[in-house]
Each structure stands twice: as C-alpha cells, then as structure tokens.
Amino acid sequence: MKNKAADSLQDLQYFGEFGGVNPSISDSSTYTFLSAKTMFDTFEVNTEGCYLYSRHSSPSNLYLGEALAALEGTESANVYASGMGAITSVILQLCDAGDHIVSSRTIYGGTYAFMKNFLKKFNIKTSFVDTTSIKAVEKAITEHTKMIYCEAVSNPLLEVADIEALAKLAKKHNLPLVVDNTFSPLTIAPAKLGADIIIHSLTKFINGTSDCVAGVVCGTADFCLSLKDVNSGAGMLLGSTLDSLRAASILKNMRTLHIRMKQHSANAFYLAKKFQEDGLTVSYPGLSNHPGHEVMTKQMNHEYGYGGLLTLNVGSLENANSLMELMQAKKLGYLAVSLGFYKTLFSAPGTSTSSEIPLEEQKEMGLSEGLIRFSIGLDNTIERTYQIMKECMMQLHILPEKTLQN
Ligand SMILES: *Cc1c(COP(=O)(O)O)cnc(C)c1O
Predict the structure, then answer these.
(1) Closest C-alpha to 398, from 364, 362, 372
(2) For the chain, does the N or the C end have fewer beta carbons within 10 angstroms?
(3) Any residues with Cβ below 6 Å from ligand 1, and which?
(4) How many CA atoms within 13 Å lie on the side-chain side of 176?
C-alpha cells in the first residue's frame, strides 16, 4: 500500500536528547565548531548536520520543516515566523525589479496588499486574474512574468484552483506555480498535482491552537536552499525566523492534523447542507452548486472532506454584525479573524481580512458586505450547534420563524 501524507507524517519519529519521545528543543541562537575550517565551509555551502546560527537553521526548525515536506510530498521545506514571512520570501526570491506576477484575484488580503502596493518599490507588477479561467491566466503572461500564484481554496470566497491545469500551463511557459494551501492541508496535495512551491500559514489549521503565527515554504531542495543562502536568500536576509520553541509546539500539534481536518470538514459539510435546505445563501465546495465543486471533487483526498470553511451571505453588513455578536454571546464561537481553531471563528471579510481590497474590486469578485466567513470548529455535537445557530438567525429575522418546526 502506498504511503499517504498522513502516514509519512506518522512515521517521522524523532528522539530527544535523553530518549524523549519528542525531539529536544534547540535552545541556542548560535553553534560552536570544533574547527575553524568547518565554520568557513558551513558559511560557503551547507555542511550536512552543521548548524551555524539560528536565523539560518536550527534543529527544531529543521524537524518541523521535515514534517511539512512529508505533508506536502516535497523534497524540502523551510519554516518562517509567519505565513506572510513565507509568502514575501518566495516572491522576492523569484522576482527581480521590473518583473511580473500573474496572480489569482481572490487571495488573502495581506498577499494582495503586498503584491499590489508594496512591490511598487521594486517596480514588480502583478496582474490579478480569474485563475479559474486558464485562458485568462495565459493571456496575462508576459515576457517578464516570473511566477503564477494562487490559493488552492481561496480566501474568502472558497474559489477552487484547478491546480493540474494551472501546473500544465506553468510548465508550458517554464514558470513556477506557487500555491498557498493554507485552507486545505491534507485535503489537497498541490505538489502531487504539479505545483512547484507550496506555502502555508501554519497559524491556521496546521497548528490549530490559535496561539502563534508561523509559515512554511515547501519545494525542491535547491529552492529551499536558495532561500537560506547567506548571500542572496530572501528567507535568510529578510529575517522572518521562527523561534525554536514555537517550531517544537507546532510539530506536536501537527500530530493530530489528520483527525482535526476530518472533524472540521464533517461539521462544515453538515452545516452547509442544513443552511442550504433552509434557503440561505451558503457557499461550500462540498455543495454541488458550488462553482468549484467538480474541480475540488476531482483533486481532493476524499478522506478529509471538503474543508472547514464556509461562507454565508446574510444580506447586509448589519445582519452580519448582529448575527456574529449574537452567536458569540451564545458561545457558538468567536467574532475573530483567522481559522482552523477548535472553536468556530467568524468574521465579515469585507470589513476585516479582505479590507485591503478596494470596495469596487470586492464587488467585482463577488465579495458582498453581508458575507460571513466561518471556520467551523471541532464541535462534538454539530446538530446542537446548528439548532442554536438557527435560533440566532430566526431571532434576527434572517430566517423566517416558520422553519423552527423542523
Ligand atoms: C492567514 C493567511 C495568510 C497569512 O499568514 P500569517 O501567518 O497571518 O502571516 C496567508 N494566506 C492565507 C490563505 C491565510 O489565510
């Protein structure tokens, strides 16, 4: 039987210094050398098993990187102090001044702001296109294009990228396909579908305890080494280094990722179906009316379901705000950005995580004011959650009272 990602992760077995079942945490910023020559060599090329300085690499960060490479099925992976630390390192490593990026228009607000505003400093331009149209992506490619960028399942509209088709196009133009897989760890395996570089904000599902920010870049050994190069590596020089203590705690949390993803997905699917039956405007890749349903079904690992995110359009920002406040008061979750927590998190993306995107562009991409993004939690009795949510919606007249009976 072929190893699945979760099995490879399970097999990664490290011993601590005293035979502990967890690897020891490296509590040092700098490392000694027995000979001056080895230190010189380590600066010049990466000497196997030698550590120099913890911004470059540390045992704890390498363990976590190894686990993430196993998760995504890539040769290597580098961890960072945040998802944005990972994203910005990749972009600045691949692009020089005057270069061009073709990106999905429905991406994380911070990534969008970085590409649209910050990269002006380097005269790097981005064409934001509808990446569900391979034609539109191809049309946007110029002689200066250095990468194609998308999210496997996009934030916040849950647009599903056809990674196989995008990878084929990228190969044809000899460009790397960079995929942010934050919304769908284990569910989607972009590298297996042909993507070259996979990024995660570990802050979300992978860590799963909403207690830190962190990120990762998964790719070839060469690319990961280039990011660490002491002379020219964006990862090394921008300094977005993850602390060893955090790396160790994220690695421990990763051990339950497969179980959590199944529960997040099962709960989200249950609610999506119920909301749809109630006549609400719900968007979830598991529903057959979702524009990305077929692509998702084709490329997903079915045992993990369609993911833990769903959006609900409740018509107006007032409705959205009152509903979120009421749900929080009823202990259904938190009115908070981010995702992948044990508790349900909800926010109105138009006024929070996607507020970097101008109103007009928000409209164009279908991001309306009354939209609530839910990251569904690990609730034990989702039927109970649904009943309470429904009562909240009826109290606010988002749902008519008559549906109370069934
Ligand atoms: C949160 C998020 C990021 C940014 O990650 P940080 O850890 O907050 O820096 C990037 N992409 C997606 C899809 C996200 O949800």
Answers:
(1) 372
(2) N
(3) 82-84, 108, 110-111, 151, 155, 180, 182-183, 201, 203-204, 213, 215
(4) 20
**Residue pair 307/187 in contact by the 8 Å Cβ criterion:** yes
Same domain, 239 and 307: no
Q: pLDDT-derived band of residue 46, with 50, 70 and 90 as boundaries?
A: low
How far is ligand 1, taken at its centre, from the CA of residue 35, in Å? 42
pTM, whole model, 2 decimals? 0.94
Q: Measured from the CA of 182, which atom of ligand 1 is nearest?
A: 13
* Model confidence at 48: pLDDT above 90: no
Pocket of ligand 1, candidates 149, 201, 242: which has the most ligand atoms within 8 Å of its Cβ, to mutate?
A: 201
pLDDT of residue 2: 77
Letter string b/e over residues 211-246, b meaning 16 or more CB atoms within 10 A of that residue's CB? ebbbbbbbbeeebbbbbbbeeebbbbbbebbbbbeb
Worst-scoring range by mean pLDDT, 12-26, 244-258, 294-308? 12-26
Q: Which mutation among 105, 155, 357 tests ligand 1's pocket best, with the greatest number of atoms within 8 A of CB?
A: 155
Same domain, 339 and 316: yes
Atom of ligand 1 nearest to the CA of 338: 1
Q: What is the pLDDT of residue 361?
A: 74
The residue whose C-alpha atom lies closest to atom 12 belonging to ligand 1 is: 108
Lowest mean pLDDT among 10-14, 210-214, 342-346, 387-391: 10-14
* Ligand 1 atom 2 nearest Cα: 201
- Residue 162's domain comprises 5-254
Inter-CA distances, 190 with 21, 195, 288, Å: 31, 5, 22
Domain boundary (206, 223, 254) is at: 254
Strand (E) positions, 221-369?
281-283, 309-313, 333-335, 344-347
Which one has a higher pLDDT value, 205 or 357?
205
Mutate to test the pocket of ligand 1, among 87, 107, 108 (most ligand atoms within 8 A of CB): 108
Question: Of the residues 254, 271, 294, which one is the last residue of a structural domain?
Answer: 254
